[in-house]
Specification:
The chain is an alpha/beta fold and about 190 residues long. The protein contains 7 helices and 8 strands, in the order βββαβαβαββααβαα. The strands form 2 sheets. Strands 4-1-5-7-6-8 form a 6-stranded mixed β-sheet, sandwiched between helices. A hairpin with a 6-residue loop joins strand 6 and strand 7.
Amino acid sequence: MDTITEILPCIGVVLAGGLSSRMGRDKALLPWQGRPLIERQLAALKQADVTETRVAGDRPDYGGIADAWPHAGPLGGLEGIARAIAGNIDLLVIPVDMPLLQPPLLRRLRCEHPGARSLSFVDHVLPLRLRLDNASRAMLQNLMQQDDPRQRSLRALQVALNHQALPLDASERAQLADCNTATQWNEVTG
């Protein structure tokens, strides 16, 4: 697919629909600097100058949008967001479990290569900037229909949308530490 040059408004999305089974408790509600981690992530997106923020996942306290395909991972969450948002827009998508993400890094992802259909950092699928339009909506639906779970992934979506990746320096790479387990959480917060 060709790169598009139109610059669109950007909605920030926190992926918070997972079961947190490896963590053993709800990652979104982990305490981070005096507030739940999900609130920290929403604040980081706002500081990255997005137009508005949304939560992917059944989170009524945060206006969450239930996953269109429950227990289908991040792609199921994005499908729910795609159904809830009309028109063409860019999404700046972050996981709830990356507490070290800083707004300047998110702004970089939001602003560089403005026409890219899919953009993330080298060796990372998240955070992700995704052009949400008819083509990407159709691709999301197509991937969710696949029998092979490997085809129902963010990586498969990125490949289908001619993904681009930005380089990272060491300090930027450190911000992308995710916390899927209690051990990882303790390493990041300790």
